[in-house]
Structure to design on (330 residues):
């Protein structure tokens, strides 16, 4: 065995085999995995709740994921209800640049709805899982004045627009279901899609957006000012296509799979690692962090923001957002 030569490597291999024993792929059910990398945490509470995560790649379907069987659903729900925005400061609106990026993303998703919704649907009922501040739904309101908006956002600290109603995904009659940066957070993404299908009308569309986590990006993320937290599944164009094809082809027709946003750049240099460490350091002092963000936003925000266009969907697999549009056929 080559790995016997290096002690540290033996240790890693044994851990990875032990960890993989009870692990089952959330997409294909496969039980064989290769270790990709240790998990890069952002905030101590997530690490305390879910310590020692590793990102593994399913040898059957290629989907990267942590061991979902080690994640307790009640703990994960608690995290999103109480910690995600309030304490970990993830998914919050900080600067005018962030707000503009949220809006640009919403506009792009509305563009897809306009393209794929049946023309007869003039006032769609739109459901978004975990709508956050409601940026996507607000863009739907601009495009379809008399549409109805629904979400099941569980974060009590959020103030969303008053026209957004709290609802269940499986209880409605929705024309559009939005899953914008959602699937990668869920303990059981397959089960959630089955739930959502109950509330989606026949011929209605499901628009899914996730980060495009190609394996090289996952491996080098530790050298960049980004983190894996709190994602637990990491899709790329092939693995998300396969996810819908093998699990939902009876009920959902895939209309398109694309990537959009900036082209992914993989940095393995020490400068990027230093940037991440600096960001870690200043984020320990929230007031300083917020001031720096505001200064950056004042200096560069408005100029950068004008150029943001996330409607650049491409068939290539190398951009930062993955998008899938599906139509319910039965
Ligand atoms: Zn798999």
């Amino acid at each position: 065995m080559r790995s016997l030569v290096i002690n540290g490597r033996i240790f890693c291999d044994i851990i990875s085999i032990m960890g993989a024993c009870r692990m089952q792929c959330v997409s294909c059910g496969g039980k064989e995995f290769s270790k990709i990398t240790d998990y890069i945490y952002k905030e101590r509470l997530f690490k305390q709740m879910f310590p020692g995560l590793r990102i593994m790649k399913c040898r059957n379907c290629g989907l990267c994921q942590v061991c979902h069987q080690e994640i307790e659903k009640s703990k994960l729900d608690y995290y999103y209800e109480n910690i995600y925005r309030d304490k970990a400061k993830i998914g919050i609106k900080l600067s005018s640049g962030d707000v503009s990026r949220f809006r640009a993303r919403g506009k792009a998703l509305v563009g897809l709805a306009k393209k794929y919704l049946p023309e007869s649907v003039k006032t769609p009922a739109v459901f978004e899982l975990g709508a956050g501040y409601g940026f996507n739904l607000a863009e739907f309101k601009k495009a379809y004045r008399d549409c109805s908006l629904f979400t099941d956002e569980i974060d009590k600290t959020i103030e969303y627009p008053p026209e957004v109603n709290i609802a269940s995904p499986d209880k409605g009659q929705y024309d559009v279901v939005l899953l914008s940066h959602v699937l990668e957070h869920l303990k059981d993404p397959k089960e959630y899609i089955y739930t959502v299908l109950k509330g989606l009308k026949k011929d209605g569309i499901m628009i899914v957006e996730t980060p495009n986590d190609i394996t090289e990006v996952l491996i080098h993320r530790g050298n960049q000012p980004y983190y894996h937290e709190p994602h637990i599944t990491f899709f790329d164009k092939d693995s998300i296509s396969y996810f819908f094809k093998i699990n939902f082809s009876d009920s959902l027709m895939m209309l398109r799979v694309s990537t959009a946003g900036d082209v992914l750049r993989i940095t393995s240099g020490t400068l990027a690692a230093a940037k991440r460490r600096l960001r870690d350091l200043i984020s320990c002092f929230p007031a300083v962090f917020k001031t720096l963000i505001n200064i950056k936003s004042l200096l560069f925000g408005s100029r950068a923001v004008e150029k943001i266009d996330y409607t650049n969907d491409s068939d290539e697999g190398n951009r930062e957002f993955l998008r899938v549009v599906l139509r319910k056929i039965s």
Remarks:
- The chain has ten helices and eleven strands.
- Residues 1-20, 301-305 have pLDDT under 50 and may be disordered.
